[in-house]
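Checked the freezer inventory, then went back to the computational side. Two predictions to log before the end of the day. The first one is the construct we discussed on Monday; recording sequence and tokens without edits.
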Amino acid sequence: MDDIVRQALVKWPNVPHCTGWLLLDRRGNWRMRDEAAQAQGAPGEPIRHEALLGFIHRNYEADARGQWFFQNGPQRVYVELVYTPWIVRLAVDAGGTLTLTDQAGGAFTPAAAWLDDEGGILFTEAAASAGQQPRVAALHDHDLDLFSEHAKIADDGQSGTFHWRADATLPLQTIPRADVAARFGFVASPAAQAAQAADASGDRA
């Protein structure tokens, strides 16, 4: 997190959170959603300003409930996730080695690989510490052909392997897409969760 953001949090600690205005799409694009986009359930306009994208990436974190957010100065802007909190690109470097890079430009080192029931590929890293959920990322759909060149999938689509390194072949595990958020401990729609909480509070009033 940027120092200027930490300072803003100390100076203005009680700024209300924001939900629904920022979305991460299935291809790792950040999108700004105005009121019209939110009302229509539309993804919103992609953010292309490089400095703003860098600011988002440096200040992108998750809270204790698994809701991902961008800390915009003193305000926490919760992110709507079309799928996972991270989207990765698969490539081959100059030495012929496979690489995975997340939407923030950071390296992603897979400890496990997953195949969902819609043909999507997921990777998880090793958990940073005991009791912590590992980072989970969906593979960009433009990279499925390259993935298939380094994978063997059974005819029934229920098993297989991914050859990541000479000394690291990952078994492909299967998972229903609908179970991914719960399995890996993140909230896909903080806006929907906030609305449900508000409805429940109203019912109790």
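The second is the one RB wanted added to the comparison set:
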Amino acid sequence: MAHNDTFARRVRLDRLYRNGTGGLLVVPLDHPISGAPVIHSGRTGSLDRLVGELAANGADAVVLHKGALRHVAARRFRDLSLIVHLSAGTGLSTDPDAKVLVCGVTEALRLGADAVSVHVNAGAASEDRQLADLGAVAGECERWGVPLVAMVYARGPGIADGRAPRLVAHAAAIAAELGADLVKTSMPRAVADLEVLTAGCPIPMLAAGGDAADGPAALAHLADAMRAGAGGIAAGRLVFNAADPGAMLRRLAALVHDRALTRPLKGISQ
């Protein structure tokens, strides 16, 4: 990742990898714009309390939109990194796979970001604009020394299975080729496919977490991804929709930071 290895970028990456284990546990909380509520989930009662619970139970970073930061106390980020999400799109649109930029890199820096993230749906009708946005943000990140997380998925009218290994590899390649430091994507189910993908990707791959409704199966899949060489986990709904977000996060932290991958995933319930 020497393409933009500035001092500022190294400092910010160190903040992301604050646990020193080489793995990254991110909790995306950017869902309200797309239509999935966050702040009333679990037992937290507010976004600020939820972020505090995440900080106390092993998260390395959270992903938030700029307006959400008004509702989170600054002290929450003493032991937690902030990734400001620059993309948005709603499920109400005639093109639910569309994403547009709603924040810029310099604005994110003014908000205190340690990194930024951009969402791209490869295969969407608006794929060309989304790719252009990712490339432009990568250039700004290069200029300011800001780590970039690309959330890239194979999604669109012609995509039958976004987890197909060929499509996931393509999504990861898009992120790497356009200058991202990390890529979050949905991973294939088969362990053999996971190993090939992580070995062939030049940047760390963060396995998307899925929903709490998937229960133990989601955790088993994430454990497989970590065994196969994933660089970490990015789980939002799996955490904030859980009956006990803190307990769920501790289980994920064991996979990412303790590398407790050979232990059976017993006693996991929602």
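For RB: Residues 260-270 have pLDDT under 50 and may be disordered. The chain has nine helices and ten strands. Let me know if you want it refolded.
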